[in-house]
Amino acid sequence: MNDALLRIAVTGVTGRMGKKIIQCIVKGEKKFSQKIILGAAITRSNASICGMDVGKLIKTDTLGITVTDDLELVKNDFDVLVDFTAPSISMEYLKFCVNNNKNIVIGTTGFNKADESCIMNASRKIGIVFSSNFSIGIALISRLLHRITHIIGDNSDISIVEAHHNKKSDIPSGTALMIKNTIVNALRSTHSIAAMNRNVDYPTYSSVSSSDRNISIHSIRAGNIIGEHTVLFIGSEERLEITHKALDRTIFAHGALHSAIWLGYDKVGLFNIGDTLGINALL
Length: 283
Ligand SMILES: NC(=O)c1ccc[n+]([C@@H]2O[C@H](COP(=O)([O-])OP(=O)(O)OC[C@H]3O[C@@H](n4cnc5c(N)ncnc54)[C@H](O)[C@@H]3O)[C@@H](O)[C@H]2O)c1
Ligand SMILES: O=C(O)C1=N[C@H](C(=O)O)CCC1
Known about the structure:
The protein folds into 2 domains: about 5-135 and about 250-280, Rossmann fold; about 135-245, Dihydrodipicolinate Reductase, domain 2. The strands form 2 sheets. A 7-stranded parallel sheet has the order 3-2-1-4-5-6-11, sandwiched between helices. The chain is of the alpha/beta class. It is built from 11 helices and 11 strands. Bound molecules: nicotinamide-adenine-dinucleotide and the ligand O=C(O)C1=N[C@H](C(=O)O)CCC1. Ligand LLHOTIJI binds near residues 132, 170, 175 and 227.
């Protein structure tokens, strides 16, 4: 093991995020190349690319890392696992990390409440950074939403609009659900009557336009949209709209790799991107 560099295992290496994360690790950017190294490349069981050098997968030089579907085979080759795949397999990867005392960065979305409590329980034994959105912009917005909701939430009709590429499997987005949860918690903490009257039960993940009486989520699936979220606070005299547009998946990959470095192999607990950026303490 290279004493100085943190070794990263990347799952879902044939995926949009998996490939982007590997590219960011191997591209040699100073902020990463002096801190992390690719330790393992994981794909789904019995995939035809098993045995291939991961460099070939991302169309670059041979990297000396062979794609595998067997985490057991490479458990001594990595320190932190970075996972952007799908809920069911993420739960398997999480179990492996708990059993082998490996820290994990989870970017996968579409978890149900049982999955989320598994993540919470796992964080008693290992370090986990779990965020539906690893961009800096959404981390900032979610902190500002606490303040904004405290001040105008009770007197606004609140809606969330999210737009993503037409290959996205979960709906609404994890980010939209996180934004809604942030607003609901801020309303609750003001103990406002309006908050008590709001129907804050979560929509099922599959609903296209999951709406409560006051806080609705509307989803667009089109083209190659990377990820856009708008929160609207609509009052009787004015309207506030806050929008974030991801322009490249690199923003998510950088957030995830920064989080892996921040987590290291010794932190224990459940964190989000705001914790790793120090935003939650600042705002
Ligand atoms: N948190 C964030 O910042 C952020 C950013 C982008 C995407 N995401 C989320 O990350 C996930 C992946 O997004 P994507 O665009 O890369 O998707 P994708 O479909 O391009 O890639 C998914 C990867 O997971 C693998 N996979 C799926 N099911 C599997 C299984 N059962 N066993 C093993 N491997 C399996 C696929 O083979 C593929 O490599 C989604 O949940 C998405 O919402 C989160
Ligand atoms: O591309 C995706 O899928 C994304 N999903 C996240 C979500 O579900 O919130 C956000 C970033 C892009």
